[in-house]
């Protein structure tokens, strides 16, 4: 029987395993931690009954994932839930940029920027399912929908700072900038519009959904499906050297490139070993979960209904903050992302105490404590927040790396999404999943299309692996 080993059991490793098991391959997943899921896990971190997502939390890219749709994970317990409002970016003074699932509703709330928002995102949102076939794989390939991709893709090469000038209101600029800042890149760099435009278009098509019962539900559904297909999972099995790899026809690595280099060493072609060891890391995330009595007392009324809130102030302040962290300096007022998943999924709360998920952008490997800065930023737009906190749980950049070995220095993106790495992945090649050894592939979020619980990095790599097996047959 044809066999495969997947090293690493995050969403991409599980996706690769499922895709191969569905074609009759005997698959074993080896996970170093005591449970699979990587960043797609949830637990009662502070109080009994209060459910917090560990990392991955809001899923505009996952809900439309070709992989998740293909395998119908709803049959294995995955249910999506939506908040009333997808995202709010509050400003000093009480106003805010408000992102609704509907392009028209979003545009209507942006005043004189409404027509500009409609022109920017109406087309890609209406055609997102077709665009998804191209943007959720390697960028340098013959596209399935070249004309649609060209129309969508032309603005994505711009710096976010340039694209933001399309908007005349502070609300419009800040709303776009906050989503673009998910790239963890200085917003004046080329191609920083790409991730923001992709997330916004996906959200206008499918919404910023959460998984009922926590992001853990995505992992649980994938595990159930893999088990049904005959796949096996072994936890608490770290792989640090090539000698620890079981014999297999295919070996997949849901690991950071540096970890693959550490395992395989000189077995890798020299140019690939060098590229993997030089793989650039992005800034870090400093995460704090809060238990909040009565929820966050936002000044802006729409923020009370939003699944995600971006706390960063104006666009210019946000841009300055991202420049600081990229330069290795901790800003006084960091960009803070807040998740209020309980608004869409009330079972996550314990009575009137609600789980509030947050993280701040910080320099990679930041050794300080960003908790006070996070609280101060929220308090800035929600006076009285501090008094409502009844418990908290911190995960620093160091603890992030210990929690998930791919998150070196708190880098939850698994690598800097600069032009080269966003375009090519871990090395300059037209085949970002291959590593120069027959039957071996990398399938982590370091490869296209990048981070998220969509599983597409693993699914794309598995397609190559299955082609390799077919040629051998």
TrEMBL record:
InterPro entries: FAD/NAD-bd_sf (IPR036188). Pfam families: NAD_binding_8 (PF13450). It comes from the Bacteria. This is Putative dehydrogenase. It comes from Mycobacterium cookii. The lineage of its organism: Bacteria, Bacillati, Actinomycetota, Actinomycetes, Mycobacteriales.
